[in-house]
Structures are given as structure tokens and as C-alpha cells.
Amino acid sequence: MKSKKSTIPFILLVIVVLLALFYPGMPIDGDNEYDTADIAWMLTSTALVLIMTPGLAFFYGGMVKKKNVISTMLQSFICMAVVAVVWVVFGFSLVFGESVGGIIGNPATYFMFEGVLGGPNWPGAPTIPFVLFAMYQLKFAIITPALITGAFAERIKFTSYVLFICLFFVFIYAPLAHATWHPDGLLAGMGVLDFAGGTVVHMSAGVTALASALYLKQGYSNGGHNPARITYVILGTGLLWFGWFGFNAGSAFEASDLAATALATTSTASAAAALAWIFFDAARGKKPTAMGVCIGVVVGLVAITPAAGFVTVPHSLIIGVVASIISRLVVEWRTHSRVDDTLDVFPSHGVGGMVGMLFTGVFATHTINEAVETDGLFFGETGLFIAHVIGLVGAAVFTFVMAFALLKVTDLISKLRVSPEEEEMGLDISQHGETL
Question: Which of 93, 157, 335, 382 could share a disulfide with 97, CB 3.0–4.6 Å?
Fold first, then answer.
């Protein structure tokens, strides 16, 4: 199948190259102090978070039909290229630039990474170079749109998908990340806590996935899936689990006891969630499956993400188990509905992120992290929990409405759905001309 010529993406890339000639991003001569141990840990964490995206590619790629494995995996991989370029040009500024109303950053603050090399240390990461902080945060921005792909796997045009992830980053990810993680952000000002991205990453991806599934409707050949390679799913889960320690423990931004605590809660919540998934199935007369264990692990990792550096290890077990059971029930509901969220992104990431956000408001304590100004509901205080309920509802509504609008805009510019013939042929061939 012959592909149509498309020169606009190449022209945009040429413009970026030309901008680099005029905005070289020269280092600033600053008097910054660093901690070499913290730098080493954050360099490692940055690499760990990046490897999660190839891990996600295997995780999703193993779940789809054989004729769509390459296209599904590439949808994750391409985020490492697209988002990285956007991040340097203006994306980092949108998230961490000078705050505009607590909603978004000024895109001119660090345009083309001006002022990043040698720049003043970020207040939340005072012992590492500013550019390292920027690169660590980039990896979160990369994996978030990749998570959405499981919702419309096997039925979206690749070129339209690339356009959509750019729009998603600008209009959903950047505002949520700025509002949550910037000191002057709207949600941060409300007291909402998100240690490593429960709201910013998983809720935004999960709710967008739900909007995508509703917008694109069912696949032309909808009727269940025979996973291409469950071994890919297991491999992907291992890479995600491994990388998640950089995702959560790295969010301490230092080699410290807080990082160790986040690593511990991440380990235990994911383990408990994996057991809860298959034990809950066994209690209902179902066989324990490799797929169930893998999905359970991921749900536990998602749920503990916002709470990892705020809760105790025993409380992480509760978060993992409860999130796993709730997500399992939502998967059951989704299976019997007409919502074609192909790889259950909303039940896993959306619901898991919501449960984690709420339980952060229940179990967070200043004895673990001094950033917790008001303890959670479990300790008899209500302020944090109420802030989290308000933040959850606001973030979910904002994301869903904006995602639906962006899907419509994308569809008007470049048709989202592949044709019935292309879907039947398989996206590997119809979109990329490649096969396993």
C-alpha cells in the first residue's frame, strides 16, 4: 500500500534545527553546589525511567494480535523521539517555566533550553544540576502519552497518533504537571500531593484512554483478543517493574532515606497487588494467569506512585491490594460493556491512579516526608483528603473534556481511524509495511 507524501513534519523538524542556530543554549556561569551521590543516583534513575517505555512497548505489544505487534510497540517507542524534541523547544518551559496563573508555564522561560545548562538548581532538587532535573522530568513526559496507546491499539493511524500525542502533551500533560509539581501550581497550592505522577502521569493517561475508547468506538473486528506473545507481556512487566524504582525512588531527587522508603513501598505495593489479582480470581473459581499477575503488578505500581514517598510500608500493602481488586472489577465491567479500551488502560492506570491519589490523602504522614503539612485521614485529619478528592474530580473532568476535544481536532486535521480494510490487514502492514 503506497503512502501519501507528507512534508509538514519534515519542515517542522528543519525549523527546529534552524532555531538551534539562533538559540544555542550556552551554559550559564553559576555558582551552584552539587552532591555527587545525588547526581549519580539521579543519572541512574533517569535511565531507569527511560527503559520503562521500551518495557511498555513489550507489555502492550504482547497483548495485541500478531498482525499489530510492531505498530503497537512503535507507538511507545516514537514517544521517546517526539516528546524529547518538543521538550527541548518549549515543553520543559510549559511545565516548569514561570507560572501563568498556576495553570501553565511561560513557553519562553527556557525556550530551546536557554538557561538550563548551568542554571540555578531547582528548589525541589537543590543538589543536582538543573539540566539533570530537566532530563529526569522528560522521561515522565515521554511515557505518559505512550500509556494511552493501549486504549486504541489496532485501530489508529500512525500519523494521526503522532499529532495527537503532541496536542496531548501541550494541552493536558503540561498543565497537569505544572499545576501539580510547580511550586506556584494550582493543585500544589491546594495541598495536593503527588510524589511521582499518580495524577500527572497515570490519571491523565487513563482518563484520556477512556475518552479515546469512547471516541473511536469499537474496532471493526471487535470480538476479543488472542495475545500475540504472553512472554512479551512478562518481559515488559519485568522492565516496567525494574524501571519503576527510578520512577518512584528517583522522585526523592536525592540518595537518601526517603528514596529508600519510596523503593520499599514500591516493592511491596506491587507484590501485594499481583497476589490480590490472582487470589481474587481464584476465590471466584478462575485460574491464576500470567497475564493476571503482570497486570496486577502494574496496577500496584500505578497506585503506589503518588503515595510512594509519603506512606509507610505496611500501608503500601493496603494500597496495592485495594487498587488491584477495584481495577479487576472495573476490567470485568469493561469487558461486558461496549467500551473498547483494547488493553484496559483506564481500569489499570486511570482507576489505579485514582485509588492511589485517594489513599495518599488517607495514609500520607509527615513522619515519612516533611513535605506533608497535614496528615492523612487515617491520622484523624481531613484537610489533605478533601484536597485530594477535589483535585481528583477536577483533574479527571479537565482531562476527559480536553481529551475529547483534542481527539476531535486531530480527527478533523488527520483522520484518526484506519479503514476497515487496513484494520483487517493489520497495522503492521497498512501503516508501516513491516511484519514479524
Answer: 93
Would you say 178 and 99 are in contact if contact means Cβ atoms under 8 Å apart?
yes
Say what the pLDDT of residue 410 is: 97
Please give the pLDDT value at position 341.
87
For Cα atoms 391, 109, 48, give the angle at the middle one, nearest 5 degrees: 65
pLDDT tens-place string over residues 311-359: 999 999 999 999 999 999 999 999 888 888 889 999 999 999 999 999 9
State residue 300's pLDDT score.
Answer: 98
Contact (CB, 8 A) for 138 and 84: yes
One-letter amino acid at 76 equals S
Residues lower than pLDDT 50 in the chain: none
Identify the bridge partners of residue 99 per DSSP, sorted by sequence position.
Answer: 105
Average confidence score pLDDT of the chain: 96
Instruction: Say which residue the cell 553559576 belongs to.
Output: 30
Q: How far is the C-alpha of 209 from the C-alpha of 152, rounded, in Å? A: 8
Neighbouring residues of 214: CB distance < 8 A, sequence distance ≥ 6: 339, 404
8 A C-beta contact, residue 434 and residue 70: yes
Residue with cell 489499570: 348
The HSE-up count of residue 80 (CA atoms within 13 Å, CB side) is 15
